[in-house]
Backbone:
C-alpha cells in the first residue's frame, strides 16, 4: 500500500488522501468538519474569463492561506509562503518582522470542501547526500535549524494548489486524467516555465490560489502561453 505522504503541518486536518496525478488531500477541521472558510493574507488577481479571483502574494509580505471552521472558529494553516515548502527550507530567508503581522481577509466563497494538490519533484532519496545529513539523520535548513530527514521528505513540497468544490459538487475528470490530457478544453493549465507555480481551473472545481514563483528549480510543465487570458506575472 502506498504511504500517505503530505506535509506535517497538515496533520490532524486530512480527511482523505489519494494519489493519482499527484498526492491530493481533502481538508477538515480537527473534529472532521469538511465545510471550511478560506482566509488569506495577500492580494486578489482578477483573470479575464475566470469566474473567481486568484489569491497571490502581496509585495509587503509572504502569502498566508488558512482554513477556518465557521461553527467552532478553529483555524489552521494550509500554507505559509514565508515558512513552508522546499524554497523556505533551503533557499529563501525572511525577516522575522515580515511574518509577525499578516492580517487575514476572508476569501469570497461560502464554507466549502477544500482540496489540496501537492507536488514533490525533488527525488530526496537520490539526492540525500547533497543535503549532508548528520549522524542523527537530520539536515540543516537555511535558517540554521535542523530537521529530521523523514520530515524533510514530507515538508519539502515544491508545488501546491488549493481548490474548492462548488455547489454542484462535481469532480468530473479531475482524478482520472493523465498529465498529457490536461491541455484539453476541460481545464486550463496555468504555469510558468522554470518555476513551481501552477494553478488548474476545472469546469466544476475552481483553483483559487497561485503560490509565489520560485526560480531555483525547473519543472516539466507547459510554456507561459498556458496562463489563462489576461493573467500577467
Residues:
Amino acid at each position: 500500500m502506498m504511504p500517505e505522504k503530505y506535509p506535517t503541518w497538515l496533520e490532524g486536518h486530512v480527511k482523505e488522501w489519494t494519489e493519482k496525478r499527484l498526492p491530493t488531500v481533502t481538508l477538515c477541521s480537527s473534529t472532521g468538519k469538511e465545510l471550511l472558510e478560506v482566509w488569506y493574507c495577500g492580494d486578489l488577481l482578477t483573470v479575464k474569463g475566470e469566474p473567481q479571483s486568484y489569491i497571490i502574494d502581496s509585495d509587503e509580505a509572504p502569502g498566508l492561506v488558512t482554513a477556518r471552521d465557521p461553527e467552532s472558529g478553529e483555524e489552521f494553516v494550509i500554507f505559509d509562503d514565508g515558512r513552508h515548502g522546499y524554497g523556505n527550507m533551503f533557499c529563501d530567508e525572511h525577516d522575522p518582522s515580515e511574518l509577525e503581522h499578516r492580517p487575514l481577509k476572508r476569501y469570497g466563497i461560502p464554507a466549502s470542501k477544500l482540496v489540496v494538490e501537492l507536488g514533490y519533484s525533488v527525488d530526496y532519496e537520490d539526492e540525500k547526500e547533497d543535503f549532508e545529513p548528520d549522524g542523527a539523520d537530520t539536515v540543516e535548513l537555511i535558517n540554521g535549524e535542523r530537521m529530521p530527514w523523514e520530515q524533510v521528505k514530507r515538508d519539502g513540497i515544491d508545488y501546491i494548489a488549493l481548490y474548492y468544490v462548488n455547489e454542484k459538487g462535481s469532480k468530473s475528470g479531475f482524478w482520472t486524467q493523465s498529465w498529457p490530457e490536461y491541455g484539453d478544453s476541460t481545464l486550463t493549465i496555468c504555469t510558468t516555465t522554470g518555476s513551481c507555480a501552477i494553478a488548474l481551473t476545472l469546469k466544476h472545481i475552481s483553483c483559487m490560489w497561485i503560490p509565489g514563483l520560485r526560480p531555483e528549480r525547473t519543472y516539466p510543465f507547459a510554456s507561459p502561453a498556458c496562463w489563462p487570458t489576461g493573467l500577467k506575472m
Notes: The chain has one domain: 8-226. Confidence is low (pLDDT under 50) at residues 170-233. The longest strand covers residues 112-119. Residues 8-226 form one domain.
